[in-house]
Amino acid sequence: MGCDMDMRNNKSTAAIAAVLMIGAAALQGCSGQPSADQPSESRATGAPAKAGAYGVYVDSEGHIALPDDFLTDWAHLGSWAVAKDGGVEGIHNVYTPKEEVDYFRQNQEFRDGAMLVKEVRAARGAAHTTGDAHWGEDVQVWFLMVKDREGRFPDNPLWGDGWGWALYNGGDRATQVATDYKKDCLGCHIPAEKTDWTYTYAYPTLGPQVAQYAPKEEDAASMAAAAMTAMASASEGGAAGEGVYKRCAACHSLMPGQHGLGPSLAGVFGRKAGSAEGYAYSPAMTNSDVVWSEETIDAHLKDVKGFIPGNKMGALFPNGVPDADERDAVIAYLKEASQ
Questions:
Q1: Cα–Cα distance between 272 and 146 in angstroms, integer?
Q2: pLDDT tens digit sequence for 221-274
Q3: What is the model's pTM?
Q4: Residue 76 forms beta bridges with which residues?
Q5: Helix, strand or coil for residue 194?
Q6: Alpha carbons 193 and 32: distance in angstroms, whole number
Q7: Domains detected in the chain
Q8: 184, 250 in Cβ contact below 8 A?
Q9: Contact call for residues 57 and 185 (beta carbons, < 8 A)
């Protein structure tokens, strides 16, 4: 992934947006923190060993470390522009070691130990001579995948469906925050199940043949809907508020001090925004004067980007909870469950 995006305001923007939105995801990824027995020298060089990521970025327990210099030493596979409201709100750039590109071009599949890194950056746009141009700025998250053809870590909830999964917040390269790949990651990859859970058609570096897997323009919306349905499927059968909360649970726990991609919501009512100990908040959240109550949580979920401009959730979950009844239900649930 890694490039500047030049977006024009013409008829193609809407079609591009529908296809590209499904690649974002969420953010999607998972594993554990890098452990002390990981070879630091090989991490620093960015050059994978013969066994791919294993023993270099993946330790004996399945913890996946974020490589130090993939931006300069790895191959850029392709980029996603996440479009919204006539603009671009995120740039997603994908990288892999150069030897993995060679292997894929020859075999039309990722080899065991192949590693993918998606870097998600906030987007900024302005008028240029070529039109309305957008480019990436601050890193929001890093999402990692490691190919596993041997089922190495059957008891690790961050490994399965042929891959290891990991997620790091943009402000912290050392702490892996995902907990369960099925809950945190897989839903966003449902449309790519037939291509080994990866959106290979968006990665032209892998060769011209990958273009055959691109969805038809008219199918893009249904693919995105399928992903959203998979992510929300846990809601079925539960009480209304609990069901809505299950969409939030990929990022927020209800256990004190157990932070994930988002902070723990334990004790959230009456707490100043940006003050939960141990979580790396955005400056926008830390510097706000908001105190969480039924009214402020409702306002935040209704307008995630605008209520506290610049917060992390605004970039990763910009639509929030638009339905007023669902907001009422999840707030009532949280008021009880977060105590």
A1: 38
A2: 555 555 555 545 444 434 578 878 877 876 788 889 888 778 999 999 999 999
A3: 0.61
A4: 95
A5: helix
A6: 24
A7: 5-218 (3.50.70.20), 236-337 (1.10.760.10)
A8: yes
A9: no
